[in-house]
Amino acid sequence: MLWSRRSFFLGVLLGGPVLLAVALRVVSTLATSGFQVNGAPIEGSSVFGLMIWLLFIRFIVPILGVFYGTSLIADEVDDKTITYLFTRPIPRRAVLIGKYLAYLACTVLLVLPSVMLVFFLVVPTGGSSIAEAFPSLLTDFGMLTAGLAAYGAVFAFVGTRIKRPLIVGLVFAFGWEPAVLLFPGYLRRLTVAYYLQALVTHEMPQDSAVSMLLQVFREVPSVTVSLIALSVIVVAALWSAGRAVERREYVLEQ
Amino acid sequence: MTTRTRYFVIVSLLVLGVGLGTGLVAYYVGVQGIPFARHSGPEELQYIPKDATVVAFANVQEIMHSQLRQKLHHALPAQQETGQAELQNLTGINLENDVFRVVACLFADGALTDNGRGAGMVLVRGNFDETKIESLMRSHGAHVEDYKGARLIVVDANPAHDDSNARNFALTFVEPGLAAIGTADVVRKAVDLHQNGANTPPTVQSVTANDDLMAQVRTLETGNNAWAVGRFDVLTAHAHLPANVAGQIPAISWFSIGTHINGGVRGALRAETRDDEAANNLRDVVRGFLALAKLQAGSRPEFQAMMSSLQLGGQGKTVTLSFDVPAQVFDVIGAHLH
Q1: Cβ–Cβ of A3/B4 closer than 8 Å?
Q2: Tens-digit pLDDT profile for residues B243-273
Q3: Which of A33, A157, B146, B337 places its Cα 20 to 30 Å from the Cα of B225?
């Protein structure tokens, strides 16, 4: 999984925020006035919050879930190696759960160090202190792990049930979720982002008209409700994925 | 597990371990503030007593020579020049060139206040003609007191009225080029703090020993030429507000504002609330006002740049609002004044 064709993409995806943080740090060191957004000065911890929102929550975590979650079984089918796994004397769902746990370990070990580097590069600038912001970093770690777990489970299910899971996954993560969150009502409860965003301690950025709409219609569930909902999503998605793997007949194309 | 995967896991865990370790050390050291504690802010803070409710700073030279000030100078030439000329005639102080920076403090509670009256002091760093200022004040009824070897020029408040609660006003030159002006009791404390020097006994401490306030000051040092920080809860508690008004005020414990004045005014307001819930409530209120203000600014292009600069931020108990008032806004104001 780690050294697949996606490794290059993964490196760019997670190296990007670190390079951006290095650039911001250099600019902040050279400019005496610190970070500015639309001309207004902004603390390093706020910049870190913006990066967590815009880069990690809205982009990196869903896309890692889509690319790796959907490929858990689909890659084995494409490579025609799934037969070797399913002929082992273990339940099929155990194979899926094992691959899911490997996905979770890999993505967590990729994302958290990237966030850690961004934190230490960005937060000490503009008058913020590492000591003050450190507790929120631990919360961010927990939130990102929960996000990776939930998205991974949902897209693992998609990967086991649907023929072209990547397209469906991308539409769900970058079409359905952002669109539904814009509207008031109950539909937003059918997204992972609704529960995940409730765990974010940073202020949502006001970077566009869409963000303003999101803030106006934002209805935030409590942390307990969000954690329970995310746990239910993980368990239900994995159980459904396991059931699909057990029942489905995978026909390998010759 | 392949060798490459093993290296990947080791490097990832190493980054995480070192980062978490460093963060934990910073957290405990930062909170307790013992080993790496350092004094921040202007040196005049050492003359401000520890229990100050509000402390403010302004780099007068930078502000007086800013483009914004030049604009205002052109917009209001007559009034300003008269006022400045009067001040120079009376005291010999040229505001443009003689005043370098100002540090002010306010006391809303504690030993320096009585009967609900606040106390305060302004420390002005600059070039002063001490003799001229003293003779001017004496001609206006002030008298000179000796306080621990320092000359205090004291003005009795309302001498015509028999008001026992009246606060005396005093001026002294704490050191050459540094005038302390304010409530007599506070100015005396400044003299005490100056005379204690580096070996400050625990009975008299400066605001630099107030860790909570200095932590706020440290956040304002970068890129600001004017700032203020203070205890919002203490101020509101002593403001004698009606109960229904006081009940509507958010539970803010600390507030600070840092601004950089040059072509325009850019800065950030920061509020630290009692708890996370109060911070969320405050963010909701500010968010509502921002949305309303942005809608209102839609028809006024000159205000749109300012409105788009408003950024609500912060985490946990902290709420921040960054702003940038561009020069165009002051042009509009100047045009209205003309």
Answers
A1: yes
A2: 777 777 778 888 889 888 877 888 888 888 8
A3: B337
Nearest residue on chain A to B218, alpha-carbon basis: A127
Cβ contact B43:B102 at 8 Å: no
Q: Which residues of B touch A36 (CB under 8 A)?
A: 266, 324
Q: Collect all residues of chain A within an 8 Å Cβ-Cβ radius of residue B294.
A: 212
The answer to whether B4 faces chain A, any CB pair under 8 Å, is: yes
Kindly determine whether residue B310 and residue A128, on different chains, have CB atoms separated by under 8 Å.
Answer: no
Closest CA to B226 of B75, B73, B61, B93: B61
Mutation test of the interface with chain A: which of B1, B225, B257, B322, choosing the one with the most A Cβ atoms within 10 A?
B322
Domain ranges in chain A are: 7-247
* pLDDT tens string B106-163: 988 665 555 556 788 989 988 888 888 888 888 878 888 888 888 888 887 665 555 5
pLDDT score, position A211: 61
Residue A20, min C-alpha distance to chain B (Å)? 18
Helix, strand and coil percent figures for chain A, each rounded to 5: 75, 0, 25
A-contacting residues of B 11-50, CB under 8 Å? 11-13, 15-16, 19-20, 22-24, 26-27, 29-31
Q: Residue B220, SS3?
A: coil
* The pLDDT of residue B33: 42
For residue B305, which residues of chain A lie inside 8 Å, CB to CB? 38-39
A111-143 CB burial, b ≥16 within 10 A, e <16: bbbbbbbbbbbbbbbbbbbbbbbbebbebbbeb
The residue that leads in pLDDT, A6 or A52, is: A52
Residue pointed to by tokens 């507000």: B241
Phi-psi category of residue B223: left, alpha or beta, with phi > 0 → left and psi -120 to 50 → alpha: left
Predicted local distance difference test score (pLDDT) of residue B243: 73
Q: What is residue A101's predicted lDDT score, i.e. its pLDDT?
A: 93
pTM for this prediction: 0.61
Which pLDDT belongs to residue B34?
A: 39
At residue B80, the pLDDT reads 58
| Residue corresponding to tokens 């001017």 | B136
Share the mean pLDDT of chain B. 78
Name the packing angle between helices B3-32 and A130-161 (round to 10°): 150
Q: State how far the Cα of A240 lies from the Cα of A118, in Å rounded to an integer.
A: 36
Least Cα distance to B267 among B223, B307, B302 occurs for: B223
State both tokens at A81.
């190696």
